[in-house]
Every structure is written in C-alpha cells, then in structure tokens.
Amino acid sequence: MKTIAKAVQSEINVKKSQFICHLFPTKTKKESKEIILKVNEKYNDATHNCTAYIVTDGEGFDDDGEPGGTAGKPMINVLRKNELHNVTAVVTRYFGGIKLGAGGLVRAYSKSVLEAINEAEILEVDLYDVYTLVFEYSEIKTIDGEVRNNQLEVINKEYSDKVIYDVVSKDNRDIEKIFEKYGDKIIIEFKDKEVLVK
C-alpha cells in the first residue's frame, strides 16, 4: 500500500484559471472532513474547493458546484491509479473567466492532483491492527518475553499506575490468543488500524 509522507501543495494555471492542489496524509473520514473544512475556511473566496479521499474507513469525493463528474471523480481516479491510500486531495479553483468545458475540467482537475503527487514523498506501507495491553508492573518481564517470542512490535509504551503497550503483529498473528492465557492479569483491547512504513 502507498501513501504520502507529509502534506504537499502544487499549483497549475489553465486558461487563466488557477488550480491549487493540497494533498494530506489522513487515516479516517473524520480526519479528511476536518481537513476539508479547514481548507474551505482558508480559501473561502475560491470559486470551488473540490475534494477526494481514500482512507481506512471509506472513500468519497465532491465536485463542489462544478458540473457532475468533472472534478471530484477525476481526482479520486488519479489517487486510485497511483494506488494511494490514507490521503485526502483538495483542489481549489479560482475561475479565470474562460470556460473549460467538461473535458477541460476533467483534465485540469486530474492534472492538478497528478502534479501534487509528483511533488509528494511516496511511502510503501502496511496496515496493521493495533492492540492495547494493560498490565501490572510485576508482569513486564513475562509480557516482554511473549512480545519477543511472537515477533510482535511494541509501537508505544506508557507507564502510569499500570503498564500500557500498544502492539502490532506484522504477520497478522492473533494477539488476543497469545495473551488470553494470562486471564485477568492483562487487559487486551483492539485500538485502531495503524499504518507502518515497510
């Protein structure tokens, strides 16, 4: 799976219309919608702010007033063709006075996203289930042993009144089964899906 390392911006001009594309790394629809809202606020004087996103819990696009199928759909198609995931694209258009027609709009919005992708640092990543383990300090040695023996990866550790590990299994081992033998000594909860660089 591919995604982008960080947010990028690019700009093209087509027949006096200005197209500004922003690409953002995002994980969820909620995150995408929050970013889209911020871009809309920043460019509230623009003629259109068209959007497309592909994230872990779905995908979507919006033409924002452009003729149906001429903006959001071409944008998401470019993301798909480039096999990008966990990314949100927003193309802001300032109309220059010359109509582009349906074909011209499709080409302009597609090119705008493609230019931004060319500017981006592309990462090869895998998606893993993240589990949270909560246990007493007295169990650290035992839990660390299980983590090591089962080739699990601890991606976050917290030490408060109890020890908290966020763990993933790179070969999709069932983490719950590994630790179920400890009964009430350890609390296991599914936390999230996490993207990790290969």
UniProtKB/TrEMBL annotation:
Residues 15-117 form the Impact N-terminal domain. GO terms for cellular component: cytoplasm. GO terms for biological process: regulation of translational initiation. Pfam families: Impact_N. InterPro entries: Impact (IPR023582), Impact_N (IPR001498), Impact_N_sf (IPR036956), Impact_YigZ-like (IPR015796), Ribosomal_Su5_D2-typ_SF (IPR020568), UPF0029_Impact_CS (IPR020569). PANTHER family: IMPACT FAMILY MEMBER YIGZ, IMPACT-RELATED. Belongs to the IMPACT family. This is Uncharacterized protein, YigZ family. The lineage of its organism: Archaea, Methanobacteriati, Methanobacteriota, Methanomada group, Methanobacteria.
